[in-house]
TrEMBL record:
Family listed: Belongs to the peptidase S33 family.
UniProt cross-references to InterPro entries, sorted A to Z: AB_hydrolase_fold, Pept_S33_TAP-like_C, Serine_prot/Carboxylest_S33
GO molecular function: hydrolase activity
Region listing for Disordered, in residue ranges: 32-85
Limits of the Peptidase S33 tripeptidyl aminopeptidase-like C-terminal domain: 454-550
Segments of skewed composition (Pro residues): 40-51
Organism: Tessaracoccus lubricantis
Alphabetic keyword roster: Hydrolase, Signal
The protein's name: Alpha/beta hydrolase
Length: 551
């Protein structure tokens, strides 16, 4: 087996652990049976009863979206978006005939089938309106997986791994059994995975976009980055058509409420990680009446205050790694933290002018920094590997860092994964921007909080030239929702801990649980203190004492 294949297989396992798997498989603290045993969930058709007159329809908030409180953090938002661009030719995304009314969506027959592991894993596809304000229009498909748990007495527990852009079916399989007697449900949100998903350009067009210099040093490089972003946005509109106009988190949680109803759950019990915390918070805002026990781990920023730059989290995580490296016999990069830092910075800076050749491809500055960031999602167990790969790149071998970047981007020999396309498609419509001319100044402002990672990771014009407008900017406080457990890790690389603090403060019923440590996400790791607190909340509704910190 070649070194490249070994590295790829090992990193695939690590990525699965860091971004999906470790969030699901660790810390298997046993649950407690509470309710009268129910019949196990079995494959076959299920047709819900009609929604009684006077009750709200699944997916339809009691307070319409247009009447929800909003914030307006940006004046004259999205000035450079290509909102007048029309798809060239016929988009690749196909839609289905709609069911005609909210009641018909709520009473559709759900066909559960055995799809893996001898029937343990069951799958189905359901329909949801493309436009929730027009149930008589086109429909999309949502792919759902469930894994029955124990006697199923606790009912469904929905899980979401974040992104945006990642599907949740694999997370359901990985987390199955983690919380006893819960049936674990995962779905690929609209735009992702096996659901009706975003389609963008060809492999070659995407490759061109990926190889753009994300840290422009002059007008020519900046012009190329801007044009590449314009082209990419148009390619996504050409491939996806009107799907791009209906990928907001508001749409996602309306789908989720429909899925809750079709699963037979009166309340939504839910574990969301990273972007999944935004999904959970938005659900509590729109559907407080059916919010159950919501666990939101590795929180994103939901306030209208200036967010902590994500790159600051990567800088903190890199600093922690460098500190470990300087004091460990397991790291060959040296014993002087300042010198290690300078060597890493010099290596990445050199890549800007002289990318490393790797099997006919190039490790660029942007891809090199991304490769490092990928392992910073992990906790300190990844430090030895990160030290090795950085050392190899410093010595002129960029294969491992390029492999990491490829895995993050979902790149194979001739394709890119859907998350690369769904991430901007979903993220850009959730937020607002100030236009292209604000990008470089905003990027340079982050140099003060991330002097190594920010200049090397670079920036993007993806949203500034997107072809879809923004969703209403809701003021998410979730009035009337039951207690919500927000979990944050002090050394989180991708969602800085400050965001968990602010989410818990802004949600009227939010409560903060803190892990002092490294890594992105804590809830399903192997920390006994966190596991016991989360178990107590999901099983018995017990909120940890204010100020609870686990180490």
């Amino acid at each position: 087996m070649s070194r490249s294949v070994k590295v790829t297989q090992m990193i695939l396992a690590m990525i699965a652990l860091a971004l999906v798997g470790a969030l699901f498989l660790g810390g298997m603290v046993g649950g407690r049976s509470r309710d009268t045993p129910a019949s196990p969930t079995r494959p076959g058709p299920v047709t819900p009863s009609p929604v009684p007159s006077g009750q709200r329809m699944p997916g339809v908030p009691a307070t319409p979206v247009a009447e929800q409180p909003t914030v307006s953090p940006v004046e004259d938002p999205n000035p450079d978006r290509q909102l007048d661009y029309r798809a060239q030719g016929e988009p690749s995304v196909d839609f289905l005939d709609g069911l005609g009314s909210y009641q018909e969506y709520a009473t559709q027959t759900v066909e559960w089938e055995e799809c893996a592991q001898g029937g343990r894993v069951q799958c189905t596809t359901v329909l949801a309106p493309l436009d929730w304000e027009d149930p008589a229009g086109d429909a999309i498909e949502l792919a759902v997986t469930r894994v029955p748990g124990g006697d199923s007495s606790r009912g469904p527990l929905f899980v979401n791994p974040g992104g945006p852009g990642f599907g949740g079916q694999e997370m359901a399989v990985g987390l199955a059994g983690r919380w006893e007697n819960y049936d674990t449900y995962g779905w690929d949100p609209r735009g992702t995975g096996e659901s009706t998903h975003v389609v963008c350009g060809t492999f070659e067009e995407t490759e061109q976009m990926i190889l753009l210099d994300g840290s422009p040093d002059d007008t020519a490089e900046d012009r190329a980055l801007r044009q590449g972003s314009r082209d990419f946005a148009q390619q996504c509109r050409d491939g996806s058509g009107k799907l791009l106009d209906h990928l907001t988190t508001i749409d996602v949680v309306r789908d989720l409420d429909l899925l809750r109803h079709l699963a037979g759950a009166e309340k939504l019990n839910y574990v969301g990680v990273s972007y999944g915390t935004y999904v959970g918070a938005m659900y509590a805002q729109l559907f407080p009446d059916t919010a159950g026990r919501l666990v939101l781990d590795a929180a994103v920023e939901i306030t209208d205050r200036e967010p902590t730059p994500q790159v600051a989290g990567f800088e903190l995580a890199l600093d922690n790694f460098i500190e470990w490296c300087a004091g460990s016999d397991l790291c060959d990069l040296g014993d002087d933290a300042a010198a290690i830092r300078a060597d890493i910075d010099s290596m990445l800076t050199r890549l800007d002018q002289r990318p490393l050749e790797v099997n006919g491809r190039r490790l660029t500055q942007t891809l090199g920094a991304l490769g490092i960031a990928v392992l910073l999602y992990e906790d300190d167990e990844a430090y030895r590997s990160l030290a090795q790969y950085i050392g190899e790149a410093i010595a002129g071998d960029g294969e491992a860092l390029l492999t990491l970047a490829d895995l993050y981007n979902g790149r194979t020999a001739n394709s890119y994964g859907t998350p690369l396309y769904a991430f901007p498609a979903m993220g850009c419509v959730d937020g607002q921007d100030e236009g292209a001319d604000a990008v470089l100044p905003a990027w340079r402002e982050t140099f003060s909080v991330a002097p190594l990672m920010a200049p090397n990771m670079g920036t993007s014009y993806a949203c500034e030239f997107w072809t879809a407008d923004s969703a209403p900017q809701l003021d998410i406080t979730a009035p009337g929702a039951p207690p919500i457990l927000v979990v944050g890790t002090t050394g989180d690389s991708a969602t800085p801990y400050e965001q968990a603090v602010s989410m818990a403060e802004q949600l009227e019923s939010g409560s903060l649980l803190t892990l002092e440590g490294a890594g992105h996400g804590a809830v399903t790791g192997d920390n006994q203190c966190i596991a016991e607190a989360v178990d107590g909340f999901l099983y018995d509704g017990v909120v940890p004492a204010e100020g609870t910190r686990c180490t």
